[in-house]
Each structure stands twice: as C-alpha cells, then as structure tokens.
Specification:
about 25% helix; globular; mainly alpha; about 70 residues
C-alpha cells in the first residue's frame, strides 16, 4: 500500500487563499473585517471557504498595531 497522508492532513502543495482587496464591496466601514474578507473570498461563481483561523490571521495583520480588536 502506498504511503498515504491521513485524510485530515493538508498537502504541501495546498493552494493558499488569496483575498483580492479590490473586490471588497463598498461601503467597507459598515462591515466587520471578517465579513469583508468572506465577501472578498467569494469569486463570481465559485465560493471559496476561508477558515476562521485564516480570517483571524488576516484581521490581525490588518489591525493597526497596539489596538485591541474591540476598539478597532
């Protein structure tokens, strides 16, 4: 039997989800970052599932340094 990875493991060649910033609809100030990222990750006919961890990582990178999530 071939050496198969467990079904829940991610392959080394798994594609990363790229969130195009130009597709985030306006008005952005009325949305949370997670909502905006979920909308941005939706292609016209293909919906990509973005994990909560990926959203949290993106939100952390976008948040101004030194600010808490509640104040942002």
């Amino acid at each position: 039997m071939k050496n198969m990875p467990p079904p829940n493991s991610r392959s080394k060649n798994a594609s990363k989800v790229v969130v195009p910033t130009e597709t985030i609809p306006s008005p952005i100030h009325t949305r949370t970052v997670q909502e905006a990222l979920k909308v941005a990750a939706t292609d016209e006919h293909t919906i990509r599932v973005v994990s909560d961890k990926a959203l949290d990582d993106a939100e952390r990178r976008l948040r101004p340094k030194g600010s808490s999530p509640e104040k942002w």
